[in-house]
Specification:
Preprotein translocase SecY subunit, two-stranded antiparallel sheet, 5% strand, mainly alpha, 2 domains
Length: 447
């Protein structure tokens, strides 16, 4: 049976959209905030030679620099004030979530409700500042110590100004993302990453078309690339929306002469609970040794240790692929165990008087939910590994200029689906408000 949002999408009309004034204001605010973000990705960091930095970014496109450059919309490759993007904030959020799962003190704060959530958000902001300072200092130190450094006048003043600028840029993006979430449409931080990835799409399409004009790519190959892209998007949408619905039964109870309860509901369990976290973590960990080897092996000696490491750990190499798949599967199970606790879910169902048919409340229900989530995670991890590794393999094997890699494609499609769903929810709420207003007016006239 279609949900209310899906029914609304089927009956969507621009007339209903034009009357949703609050939704239009939210959309305009979101668009304006993303334009501000894109403007900031072109504000250069003082003391950086743009041409040398561009060459450095091209040389390290396969390392961690290239991975994060996609997420920042090219800001890292241009070394602008938004070079760190929102990655320190995302890392801080993940660390706080992981610590909440293992620390009884933080878990107790989480259970305090709204006040606890505010405390955890404050801890996340403080940790974001610390990570941004450390990362900006590390990046600037690496740039200063390079053989062909893009830094014009290295020194203490440059380091202080650079750290303050990069940290301030990250904090501004963190604040901007929170404003989009509160006053716009969709998740602000996710939309900022989404905008950074999509911003480079026109350039990638132009490069692909240029390869077609010069004869490097045949029209058949270009059509094959477009077909693969469409198929991958459809597959991701299907898998991200897939869920297992566990039947829940509420027992009947009698209060006086009336009988309450007895309804049936379901507990939705997504196929891919971990989202895009496993590919991001796996790509980041694999990118670190490749970047270190690339920067350290400036002479290009293939017989050195770093040269050998590049030979086997480069993008598209068998060892790289195997480690990538292993890390994706590992983080898929690890993060799923962090965000979904079968025992806690079973206890909450027991407190509310709900039961899973065929399983006793408590331990038996927890074991049943754990069995289901394990099977779902196996399929979800296989899906993530396939969608992330296949584009990398095609790029390495056939030199296909497939700009949207697995992680980037997952982020773009997932954020797009989530944003559309929220727009549908706002439209649905607007229609309900209109119906309630009409009913009140009708009752007022009858009186």
């Amino acid at each position: 049976m279609a949900s209310a949002a899906e029914q609304l999408a089927a009956n969507f009309s621009f007339k209903a959209f034009s009357k949703a004034e609050n939704l239009k204001k939210r959309l305009w605010f979101t668009l304006f905030a993303l334009l501000v973000y894109r403007f900031g990705t072109f504000l250069p960091l003082p003391g950086i030679d743009a041409e040398v930095m561009h060459q450095l970014a091209n040389q390290n496109a396969s390392g961690i620099l290239g991975i994060f450059d996609k997420f920042t919309g090219g800001a890292l490759g241009r070394m602008t004030i938004f070079a760190l993007g929102v990655m320190p904030y995302i890392s801080a959020s993940i660390i706080v979530q992981l610590m909440t799962a293992v620390s009884p003190q933080l878990e107790a704060i989480k259970k305090e409700g709204e006040s606890g959530r505010k405390k955890l958000n404050q801890y996340t902001r403080f940790l974001t500042v610390a990570l941004a300072v450390v990362q900006s200092w590390g990046i600037l130190t690496g740039l200063v110590n390079m053989p062909h450094s893009p830094v014009i006048n290295p020194g203490t003043l440059f380091m202080i100004a650079g750290v303050v600028s990069l940290t301030g840029g990250t904090l501004f993006l963190m604040w901007l993302g929170e404003q989009i979430t509160a006053r716009g449409v969709g998740n602000g931080v996710s939309l900022i990453i989404f905008a950074g990835i999509v911003a480079n799409l026109p350039m990638a399409i132009d490069r692909t078309m240029e390869l077609g004009r010069t004869g490097s790519l045949s029209p058949v190959m270009i059509a094959l690339i477009l077909t693969m892209l469409v198929a991958a998007i459809l597959f991701i949408v299907y898998m991200e929306r897939a869920q297992r619905r566990v039947m829940i039964q509420y027992p009947k109870r009698q209060v006086g002469m009336k009988v309450y309860g007895g309804e049936s509901s379901h507990l939705p369990m997504k196929l891919n609970i971990s989202g895009v976290i496993p590919p991001i973590f796996a790509g980041s960990l694999l990118g670190v040794p490749v970047t270190i080897a690339t920067l350290g092996n400036a002479g290009g000696d293939p017989d050195s240790f770093l040269g050998t490491l590049l030979l086997y750990m480069g993008a598209g190499k068998p060892l790289h692929m195997a480690l990538y798949i292993f890390l994706i599967v590992f983080f898929a199970f690890f993060y799923t165990a962090v965000v979904f606790n079968p025992t806690e879910t079973a206890e909450n169902l027991k407190k509310n008087g709900a039961i899973v048919p065929g399983h006793r409340p408590g331990r038996n229900t927890a074991d049943h939910l754990d069995y289901i989530i394990t099977r779902l995670t196996v399929v979800g991890a296989a899906y993530l590994a396939l969608i992330c590794v296949l584009p990398e393999y095609m790029i390495a094997k056939y030199s296909i200029p497939f700009y949207l890699g697995g992680t980037s494609l997952l982020i773009v499609v997932s954020v797009g689906v989530d944003t559309i769903t929220q727009i549908q929810t706002h439209l649905l709420a607007h229609q309900y408000e209109g119906l309630i207003r009409k009913q009140k007016d009708r009752k007022g006239k009858e009186r």
